[in-house]
Design a protein that fits this description.
It is a single chain. With 357 residues, the chain is an alpha+beta fold. It has two domains: 9-271, Rhopdopsin 7-helix transmembrane proteins (Up-down Bundle), CATH 1.20.1070; 285-356, no CATH class. Helix content is 58%, strand content 12%. It has helices at residues 9-37, 43-67, 79-112, 118-144, 165-195, 201-211, 214-230, 237-240, 242-260, 265-274; strands spanning 146-147, 160-161, 288-299, 306-315, 330-340, 350-356. The strands form two sheets. It has a four-stranded mixed beta sheet, with no helix packed on it. A two-stranded antiparallel sheet has the order 1-2. A hairpin with a 6-residue loop joins strand 3 and strand 4 (306-315). Helix 2 (43-67) packs antiparallel against helix 3 and helix 4 runs antiparallel to helix 5. The longest helix has 34 residues, at 79-112. The protein is globular, with a radius of gyration of 28 Å.
Length: 357
């Protein structure tokens, strides 16, 4: 295969492979943490892995496009090179669109596991549904909007299209706006969710800040939408689209990192514990659900009351536990009154359950 790499082509290859490698490192650390330390994986882990599996073919396709001349001005390549490069780039775009949907869904599912406020859940479910549906149709119409399909990457072919290029551009811009809104919500909502959890103030801020990396992904989404609005014609498509490609890959990479970093806390605690005599053992297990009983001892003829609490716990390493301390207990309290008399009385001690809360 002839190599027509030039112009902005080397930039495409260098930037996208760097992003793909960095995202892979974080995803592997996340999977190690979930499987080896927490001993469990959830849908958010599967979706973030799928997101990387979408970023990888996007990078491969854009690399193939760059090798065929993408990144050069259209006047510097032949029509055949333009068609081959554009076909590879459009195929890659489809993977990117799907990856954007799955990465936002992964971040939303992670937050759903730790939020208990109903309107937070409504917002997250609505966000997932809106972004997923819009991305699905955008990826679908990337190919099936014209007959023959080849017209999409070779506009010189006569074709019958039920969605014009301008109409598809409008849909793509709408997807970009929805993605930007999703990034804003996913970066802002954790501050409200975490603030109600029983955690150290410093840890709340650190975790919320790590999830607020979504603001950088939001910025990429804004620039991507601007790049889409600028593509009103195909006069220099092979060169003008480079910015769109790079903003899209950067947004996807940052979303993967944003959804992954908060889940690495058990790994951080374990690594810190290795160098501090095993201190991680108390924190990498997540929080405990405890069943506590409060027993009140009250003499029959005196207003004395003794209270003792007995707690039994069990470990539950679900996805949200990576950001919660062991001390965050969910407690069920059972109050029992023990009535007894003085020595010499005939009545025997009597246990009477008073209430169960």
């Amino acid at each position: 295969m002839a190599n027509y790499l030039g112009g902005l082509g080397p930039t495409i290859v260098a930037v996208m492979w760097t992003q793909t490698g960095l995202a892979l490192i974080f995803v592997l650390m996340r999977l190690w943490t979930r499987i080896k330390i927490n001993r469990v994986a959830g849908w958010d882990d599967y979706l973030i892995s799928l997101s990387w599996l979408m970023l990888m073919p996007y990078t491969v396709a854009c690399t193939a496009a760059a090798l065929k001349g993408f990144g050069r001005h259209v006047t510097e390549i032949t029509p055949e090179q333009f068609v081959a490069a554009t076909r590879a780039e459009i195929i890659g775009q489809t993977f990117c669109i799907i990856g954007i949907a799955t990465s936002k869904a992964s971040a939303a599912i992670f937050l759903l596991r730790i939020t208990i406020i109903q309107w937070h859940r409504y917002v997250l479910y609505s966000l997932m549904l809106a972004v997923s549906v819009m991305c699905f149709f955008c990826a679908l119409f990337d190919f099936v909007r014209c007959d023959p399909v080849a017209h999409v990457w070779n506009p010189t072919l006569p074709a019958k299209c039920f969605i014009s290029d301008q109409g598809f551009a409008s849909l793509s811009i709408a997807v970009g706006i929805a993605s930007t809104v999703a990034d804003f919500v996913l970066a802002t909502l954790p501050w409200f969710i975490l603030w109600n959890l029983k955690m150290k103030q410093k840890e709340k801020i650190l975790i919320a800040c790590s999830m607020s990396l979504g603001f950088f992904a939001m910025t990429c989404g804004i620039f991507r939408a601007i790049a889409l609005t600028a593509l009103n014609s195909r006069s220099d498509y092979s060169y003008d689209t480079v910015g769109l490609i790079l903003w899209s890959s950067t947004e996807l990479m940052l979303t993967i990192l944003t959804a992954t970093i908060p889940t690495l806390r058990p790994l951080y605690n374990r690594l810190r514990g290795v160098s501090s005599r095993g201190e991680y053992h108390d924190s990498d297990r997540g929080y405990q659900f405890e069943d506590s009983k409060s027993i009140k001892l009250r003499p029959k003829e005196r207003n004395l009351m003794l209270t003792t609490t007995v707690a039994a716990g069990r470990s539950n390493n679900t996805s949200e536990e990576c950001i919660l301390e062991r001390g965050n207990n969910i407690v069920r309290t059972e109050t029992v009154i023990v009535e007894y008399g003085y020595k010499g009385e005939e009545s025997a001690p009597r246990l009477s359950p008073q209430n169960i809360a």
